Amino acid sequence: MKYLFYLVVATLLFSCSGKSRYGVDGVEDVTIKIDRYDRTLKDYVDVNSYSSWTSLSTNYSDATRLLIEEVLSIGYIEDADISTKLRDFYLDPVSRKLMDDASRKFVNMSRYEESLSQAFTAMKGYVPSIRIPHVYTQISGLNQSIVVCDTLLGISLDKYMGVNYDLYKTYFYNYQIRSFAPERMVPDCVYYYLCANYPLPERKDKFYQVMLYEGKMHWITSHIVQTTNFEKAVGYSETNLKWLSKNTDEVWGKIQTLLYSDDPTTIRNYMEPAPCNADFGEGSPNMLGVWFGIQIIDAYMNNHPDVTIGDLLRENDYGKILRETGSDF
C-alpha cells in the first residue's frame, strides 16, 4: 500500500486548487429555471385561501406530497385535515420566521439558476442519458437541505441562510452550521441528484467501498461545478488541512486497518459530519474517509486519462480502483 500512500500525499499537497481539466464541448445548453414553490406555500400560509391550497395540491401535487409525507412527516396528502395541518406547521413561530427570513434573503434566484444551468449542462455532457430535474424551492422546517424524488429536486432555502443566521445556533452544532452557506446550494444539488441516480449498490457496505463511493461522488461533483478545491466538498478549513499535512501517514495507516470493516459506527465516524474523528480526538477533522476517498479517486483519474467522468460514475468495482491506483489491495 506504500505506493498508494505516496499518491495520496501528493494529491493532498498539489491538487487542492484550479479548474477541472474535464471540459464539455458540443453539448446543448441546459436551462434551469427554479420554480418558487416556497412563494406559493407562503401565500397559502398568509391568506389561507382555497385557490392557494388548490395550487399546492394540484399544480404542485408531487412536491406537496413529498413535503407533507417525507420532509415534514405530518401525515398524508389524502388526509381530510392535511391542509390545516400544513398551515398550522408553518404558523408555528419558528417555522414562520424561517419562511419570512428566507423570502427576504432569496428575492432573486438568477445566480443560482445560472450556476445550476452550467452544472447540468456539464452533467448532460458527461452522462447524456441523465434526465434534467424540475428544480423548486421550499421551506423544510430545518429538515433536509435537498430532496430528490425521480426528477424532482427540491431546495430547502431555510438550510442555506448563511453560517451566521441566528436560528441555526439554537438547533445545530457549529460543525453542522458550516454546510448551511448559500454557496453550498449548487454543489449540494449536484451531489444529491447524482447520488439518487447512481446509488451505492446493495451489498457494497465495506469501509473501502463506502469511502470510494463517497470520494467518487464528491470528486465528480467538484468537477461538474468546475472546481477542484476538494476541501470545499468536505468543509475543511486551513486548520484542518494543516492537521492533515502533519498526520496523513497516521490516518492512512489507521484507514488501512479498517478497509474491510462493515461496522456502521466505524463507517459513520469516517464518513459523516461530526465535531471530530473519534479515533483521533479533538482537533482532528471529520469526514476523513470522504477526504481520503476523494484523494484516491483523484489519483486514479490522473493515472487513467482514458477514463471519462461518465465511466467513473458507472464504475462500482472499488477494489479495482484501489488496485489500479497502485495499491496491493
Mean pLDDT: 92
Task: List segments where confidence is low: pLDDT < 50 over at least 5 consecutive residues.
Answer: 13-19
Q: Which structural class best describes the helix and strand composition? A: mainly alpha
SS elements, strand count:
3
Helix content: 55-70%
List SSEs in N-to-C order.
HHHHHHHEEEHHHHHHHHHH
Task: Give the distance, in angstroms, between the N- and C-terminal Cα atoms.
Answer: 7 Å
Rg result: 21 Å
% residues in beta strands: under 5%
Helix count equals 17
How many strands, what sense, and barrel or not for the largest sheet?
3 strands, mixed
Q: Based on CA inertia axes, which overall geometry fits?
A: globular
- Side by side, the strands of the main sheet go 1-3-2
Structure description:
The chain is mainly alpha-helical. Among the domains are: about 150 residues, no CATH class; about 70 residues, no CATH class. Helices cover about 55% and strands about 5% of the residues. It contains 17 helices and three strands. A three-stranded mixed β-sheet has the order 1-3-2, with helices on both faces. Helix 3 crosses helix 4. The longest helix has 21 residues. The radius of gyration is 21 Å and the shape is globular. About 0% of the residues have low confidence.
